[in-house]
Design brief:
Layout: H1 2-17, E1 72-77, E2 91-97, E3 102-107, E4 113-119, E5 122-127, E6 135-140, E7 145-148, E8 153-158, E9 164-170, E10 178-179, H2 180-185, H3 193-200, H4 204-212
Helix pairs in contact: 3-4
Length: 219
């Protein structure tokens, strides 16, 4: 009986350890976007067909277009841009902010994020899970680094007088992003206004107005 309990416990620990991007079992597994096989992640390209291009991305020095209602733009560098990131459990983004620009409250369901400010001043923070919902926030300047734990709602706001730029690493080849306001009020098909009115303790007319608004992505 003790042996069975130990085996079950070890199995649970192992399953938790695998609850992330799949670990590589060879030097690399460059994604094959032409494969019709559906797997968790992407199918490997024939290693003999791999070239340096599969591990390369250019243009991250170019500012993103922040001429939008949010005043920010996220340039993603994940497995969709660099096929060689497949199974490596890492990706990158550049975030550009106009003065007053914001990367609105969002989550990454599959990744922790570590962000460093290259230019400007950002007010950043994340909110812990229920029941505390504690806001942990800080104003960052050039060279400062901040970590956003996986799955927690977080944000960045440019509070400086000029443009701001940040680079962030994420612990997944495909971290995913859920922008809270857009997901709730811009769901397709829409979430029932009765549900949202009760959840947010507001009247249905305000819910209808919010659902009729344009909810944009900044990436």
């Amino acid at each position: 009986m003790k042996l069975i309990i130990v085996f079950v416990a070890l199995s649970m620990i192992a399953s938790l350890g695998l609850a992330s991007d799949p670990s590589p079992l060879q030097d690399f597994c460059v994604a094959d976007n032409y494969s019709k096989v559906f797997v968790n992640g992407k199918v490997c390209k024939d290693p003999m067909l791999v070239t340096a291009k599969d591990f390369f991305y250019d243009g991250l020095d170019k500012p993103g277009n922040t001429s939008n209602p949010l005043g920010s733009m996220v340039t993603q560098v994940n497995v969709m841009q660099i096929l060689g990131l497949n199974t490596l459990g890492i990706s990158l983004v550049r975030i550009d902010f106009a003065p007053g620009g914001q990367n609105p409250p969002h989550t990454h369901p599959r990744a922790t994020e570590i962000l460093t400010v290259l230019e400007g001043t950002l007010y950043v923070g994340f909110v812990t899970s229920n029941p505390e919902n504690r806001l942990i926030s800080k104003t960052l300047n050039k060279g400062d680094v901040f970590v956003f734990p996986q799955g927690l709602i977080h944000f960045q706001q440019n509070v400086g007088y000029g443009n701001s730029v940040a680079i962030a690493g994420l612990s997944s080849q495909n971290p995913g992003v859920i922008t809270i306001a857009k997901a709730v009020f811009g769901a397709n098909p829409p979430i029932s206004d009765v549900v949202l009115a009760k959840a947010f303790q507001i009247d249905k007319q305000l819910v209808d107005k919010l659902q009729a608004s344009f909810w944009m992505d900044n990436n």
